Amino acid sequence: MDPAGAGGSAMSSFSSEIRYDVRPIGAVESPLVDLADAPRQGDEGAPEAWLVIDPAWSLAMRDLEVGQHVVVLTWLDRARRDVLVTRPRDDPNRAEEGIFSTRSPDRPNPIGLHEVTIVEIDGSRLKVRPLEAIDGTPVLDIKPVLGPER
Amino acid sequence: MDPAGAGGSAMSSFSSEIRYDVRPIGAVESPLVDLADAPRQGDEGAPEAWLVIDPAWSLAMRDLEVGQHVVVLTWLDRARRDVLVTRPRDDPNRAEEGIFSTRSPDRPNPIGLHEVTIVEIDGSRLKVRPLEAIDGTPVLDIKPVLGPER
């Protein structure tokens, strides 16, 4: 990439053909096994779940602590990536909305954001709550929540 | 994927060889062209920037509005992906921390999260602030911020 100077020409360096690869660092282990049973958001009755992280990343996890609030990024591997509009919460009484105005998993890059609390740490396994992602969902990243309010 | 029943066996379905591809939906157009000049976080003096979105996604953007708070996901394409520990903010006086306890761009999947306000919409271009990502950074997703506080 060779960004232009101020004034920008981002589109000249943008190609819709570019791909980057994401590499799961682990997977969700959850009693939720069926998409139909999964809450739409973590704060809607989602259970505790384990993040089973590849031990190759243990050193990267070493400063995580029980009680900490973190954002977990997942890859929602059952999502559709070609959807432009959707009815929020699949409610037939609601009008369609552009997907960037929704948290639908169906979107060009189906990355899930989940704000959770770490409730237990067992080696490279982290128990968190609440997590609405289903069993087997790939985990991409763990980030601390920033800011005084969050 | 064929998740096991309750009790889970996420690791049995986890392979560190799996890859998924992310497909940029656009790119950042910003006066920030040099990583060395970029603030560490958006609230540390980051400027306004344009998100130049591929018109193929215009319908997905149609319900975004000026004044709305959204989370922008980017692909930090200059990051290192093999880093396990880092000194926060590159401060030599601070101890190393596991990268999942930091917001360092250097991480296995260098996905940036940026909470911004939409300040202008011009076709498939969105002006947002504040944004610490540099010019040319690929944009992956735009999501509404959830919850009463955020």
Give an account of the 3D structure.
Two copies of one chain form a homodimer. Chain A has 150 residues and is mainly beta. Chains A and B meet through helix 1, strand 1, strand 2, helix 2 and strand 4 of A and helix 1, strand 1, strand 2, helix 2 and strand 4 of B.
Largest sheet of chain A: 6 strands, antiparallel, barrel
Terminal CA distance of chain A reads: 34 Å
Rounded to the nearest angstrom, the radius of gyration of chain A is 18 Å
Order of SSEs of chain A, N→C?
HEEEHEEEEEE
Q: Low-confidence parts of chain A lasting 5 or more residues at pLDDT below 50?
A: 1-9
* Overall pLDDT of chain A: 87
Number of helices of chain A: 2
Shape by Cα distribution of chain A: globular
Largest interface: A-B, 76 and 75 residues
